[in-house]
Amino acid sequence: SQQGEEDPQALSIQEGENATMNCSYKTSINNLQWYRQNSGRGLVHLILIRSNEREKHSGRLRVTLDTSKKSSSLLITASRAADTASYFCATDPGDSGGSNYKLTFGKGTLLTVNP
Amino acid sequence: SQTIHQWPATLVQPVGSPLSLECTVEGTSNPNLYWYRQAAGRGLQLLFYSVGIGQISSEVPQNLSASRPQDRQFILSSKKLLLSDSGFYLCAWDQRGPGNTIYFGEGSWLTVV
Q1: pLDDT tens digit sequence for B63-105
Q2: Which of B46, B104, B109 lies closest to A43 in CB terms?
Q3: Does domain B3-112 fall into CATH 2.60.40.10?
Q4: Cβ distance of B103 and A45 shorter than 8 Å
Q5: Backbone dihedral region of A78: left (phi > 0), alpha (psi from -120 to 50 degrees) or beta?
Q6: What secondary structure, in 3-state letters, does B27-41 show?
Q7: What is the DSSP string of A21-72?
Q8: Deepest of A65, A83, B29, B109, by most Cβ within 10 A of its Cβ?
Q9: Contact (CB<8Å) B43/A33
Q10: Which residues of A touch B102 (CB under 8 A)?
Q11: Phi and psi based region of residue A3 (left: phi greater than 0; alpha: psi -120 to 50; beta: remaining)
Q12: Is B85 helix (H, G, I), strand (E, B) or coil?
């Protein structure tokens, strides 16, 4: 069953604007991860936030986690054309004995940043 | 530093032909290894994972199989491809332990015709 669901499915903004993507999930998690995928390429890990954390920053990225609402958001500030990609959230229930085999990916948000 | 290599990058195969996709990881030992499939506009579906040599777990019944003949080598195979096997296949690895980052290869585009 699909755990993480990103919203919106597609987002188009102008360079310099902020982009916000949301992820909702259904069951309890140990951590939530965000990945980026350029068209036709592999996924690249962006940031991991644990269930006991509420906010994390990495460069122009800001991730929040609200476990009471079972939702997370990824904010990219001052977007650039190079940020154009699909962004996926992935949830980890944390009971997989030291592997990521239970990591469940959403369908992604396609972000287009227009120059 | 660790790297992951996956090949071939693209291939077009006729229905009924065999398949072999290979993946190797360098710069680490005893990794967990994964094969995912991504259909167009969809998320990733885990096909197989392995926590050690010769240890393969399958997540979904399908026409594919996987093998891990060496610690850092993971192979995805099929004896007879189906049209429905077309897709983007991604190999990935992570280090044992909870909440570790998973690292992906560049992917292999498979078109079955």
Answers
A1: 899 999 999 999 999 999 999 999 999 999 999 876 788 999 9
A2: B104
A3: yes
A4: yes
A5: left
A6: CCCCCEEEEEEECCC
A7: EEEE-SS--SEEEEEEE-TTS-EEEEEEEETT-SEEEETTEEEEEETTTTEE
A8: A65
A9: no
A10: 33, 45, 100, 103
A11: alpha
A12: helix
What residues make up the domain containing A14? Answer: 5-95+102-114
| Extents of the domains making up chain B | 3-112
Say which CATH number the domain at A29 has. Answer: 2.60.40.10
CA–CA separation, B10 and A47 (whole Å): 29
B71 Cα to chain A: minimum distance (Å): 16
What tens digit of pLDDT does each residue of A10-53 get?
Answer: 999 999 999 999 999 998 898 999 999 999 899 999 999 999 99
In total, how many domains does chain A have? 1
How would DSSP label each residue in A69-103? TTEEEEEE-S--GGG-EEEEEEEE-S-STTS-TT-
Mean predicted confidence (pLDDT) in A66-83: 97
Chains A–B, number of C-beta pairs less than 8 Å apart: 66
- What pLDDT score does B63 carry? 87
CB spacing of B98 vs A105 below 8 angstroms: no
- For tokens 């904010």, name the residue: A75
Q: Which residues contact B58 (CB under 8 A, 6 or more apart)?
A: B47, B48, B66
Intra-chain end-to-end CA distance of chain A, in Å:
37
In contact, B112 and B15? CB cutoff 8 Å: yes
